[in-house]
From TrEMBL:
Protein name, UniProt field: LytR family transcriptional regulator
Transmembrane segments: 97-119
Keyword terms: Membrane, Transmembrane, Transmembrane helix
Biased composition (Polar residues): 25-38
Record family assignment: Belongs to the LytR/CpsA/Psr (LCP) family.
Domain spans labelled Cell envelope-related transcriptional attenuator: 171-311
Domain of life: Bacteria
InterPro entries membership: LytR/CpsA/Psr_CW_biosynth, LytR_CpsA_psr
Region (Disordered): 1-90, 126-146
NCBIfam families, alphabetized: lytR_cpsA_psr
PANTHER family noted in UniProt: POLYISOPRENYL-TEICHOIC ACID--PEPTIDOGLYCAN TEICHOIC ACID TRANSFERASE TAGU
Biased composition (Basic and acidic residues): 46-62
Amino acid sequence: MADRPQGSGMPEKGTPEYDWLYGGKSQSPPSDSTQRVPTQGAAASDRPDETRVMPAARREARGGGGQPPDDRRMAAASAPPPAPKQKKRRWRPRLRLGLIPLLLLLFVAYLVVVPLYHWTQIDQVDAEPSGSKRPDDQPGTNYLIVGSDKADDLSAAQRKALDTPERGGTNTDTIIVLHTGSGGRTMMSIPRDTLVEAPDGGTQMINAAFASGGATLLVERVEALTGIRIDHYVELGFGSVINTVDAFGGVEICPKQDMKDPRARLDIKKGCQQVDGLTALGYSRSRYVTALSDLDRVARQREVISGVGDEALSPWTFLNPVRYWKINDAASGAIRIDDGMNPIDLGRFALAMTGDSQTCTMPNLAAPSDPNRIIADPDRAPALFNAIIDDTTVPKRACTPTGRAR
């Protein structure tokens, strides 16, 4: 660099001012020269008098016009925002998931409690014969079903329609052995005019045993005649047939001819039809229209009983609480059972009454002593009796609607 002219006001070379402005070889700057500030990485304690950079304050924390910040504003800024107000919901009924199992539980309880209650309303009788002459225990279960003229539970209008007084049930025109087991279900009717041995010797019609000795003597005579051990006794009165059929809303019958029987209060046409309880009772009791009289009647009795069983299998029986109550009430009002029967046994009997079964009349012949009486056919009856005793399939030739040979 060219030397600057003297007296120009610029510092002269070699002076401290010159070295400070243009730099010089001196390593020690003068004491009053401006010095470079070291970086802030050094400890603050090494530079106690150093000017420091303060962090910038947040705009929200600064006070306006140089005033200190307002504490309330700072608290409001740091506090979380208030939760939005929720609208008050109106209560509306909703079907919750827990309600469905509760309703199902109550429904199942109703199905159980109703028959248990009506069980307490059923009359029980002693139907077990005494002595050691009874047949031994046999496989399967055998029920003796007896239809009596018990009418003390009929209404005044029903007794007037039947032209029958109130009575306790001392006569029977329906005797059926119902067998259930591995050999299938079989309903075998024993005609009321069948001759059996009398307790004091001689013979008598089997329905006379019921009239004179009740359930116990009738069970004894049936066992002596057939060799079949009776496990349970069920007696159905007039009222049970009428009221049970009406509770179901009627039952289907299929007469094979027009039937007009004033004694049974019956007047119906040929063909399948739905009938009420009074008509069903008359249909099962009529004996003066068809040629075989009692033998045809027992077949119609089984038809009515099977029809009631078919109605009982309808889902509507269990799904309709009112219908379910009426059926149980009607069935318990005019039924008698043996005193050894419990609710489970009665339930099994009700199930045995439903579904398909073989229907037979005891194989029979006209009695040699009286053509108006019958006896068990000595050639064909044992095959039917033994099939029930052994719980095997009943031979078809031994199972006919009237009990007569085909």
